[in-house]
Design goal:
β3 and β4 form a beta hairpin. The two termini are 19 Å apart. The strands form 3 sheets. This protein has a 6-stranded mixed β-sheet, with no helix packed on it. It has a 4-stranded mixed β-sheet with strand order 1-2-4-3, with no helix packed on it. The chain has a single domain, classed as Deoxyribonuclease I, Chain A. The chain is globular and about 40 Å long. The chain is an alpha+beta fold and 199 residues long.
């Protein structure tokens, strides 16, 4: 069983995992093999059921799209035991539970394709899981996490954060490079308050 203090989780909205992942994978396996993550949450994989994707040393849970774009995948190191709690048909989200030394940890991988975010999207899990990490490309702008302005989706996410007493781990740095060369912070990591001091 892995220790929660040593658990390493990465997330990346990769905009096409087959095209853009080789650079990241080279870094993981060749440049910094001792620092390779235990879990990777990919958004915008652009995979369909017909596409094969594997990652040596990891189990992969996917939620593909039938149409172009979107899709998510969560890669879990093969020595970590986990269970799939939910693969949503309505939203692009995967919810896994992993076993660590301090008890179960719920990991949510989420992609929002620029649509409204309902207040109750994660409520069943947020209300009953005292240890939860939400990684995702929310496509939501708010000054709280470093955007230059607020939008409706940003206010929706802020309501979820406030309602469930979540902590935003983002430090204000841009996470997405826009076409005009500016950066925005639309990829978020939210955690329950019991986890925040160790992140």
């Amino acid at each position: 069983m892995i220790s929660s203090s040593s658990l390493s989780i990465w997330q990346w909205s990769c905009r096409g995992i087959r095209v853009n992942a080789p650079e990241l994978l080279n870094f993981i396996f060749n440049v910094s093999p001792d620092a390779s993550p235990d879990i990777i949450c990919f958004q915008e994989t652009f995979l369909t059921d017909n596409h094969k994707f594997s990652l040596k040393g990891y189990n992969i849970v996917r939620r593909d799209r039938d149409s172009r774009g979107g899709g998510i995948a969560t890669c879990i190191r093969s020595n970590i035991s986990f269970s799939v709690r939910n693969i949503s048909d309505e939203y692009e989200s995967l919810i896994l539970e992993i076993s660590i030394s301090r008890g179960p940890l719920v990991i949510v991988n989420y992609y929002n394709p620029s649509v409204p975010i309902p207040d109750n999207i994660f409520s069943p899990w947020l209300s009953k899981s005292p240890r939860i990490i939400v990684c995702g490309d929310f496509n939501a702008h708010h000054r709280l996490w470093g955007c230059s302005s607020n939008d409706k989706r940003g206010r929706d996410v802020l309501n979820i954060i406030d309602s469930h007493n979540l902590v935003v781990l983002n430090n204000g740095c841009g996470t997405h490079l826009n076409n005009d060369g500016t950066k925005s912070s639309i990829d978020l990591t939210l955690v329950s308050p019991t986890l925040a001091p160790n992140c």
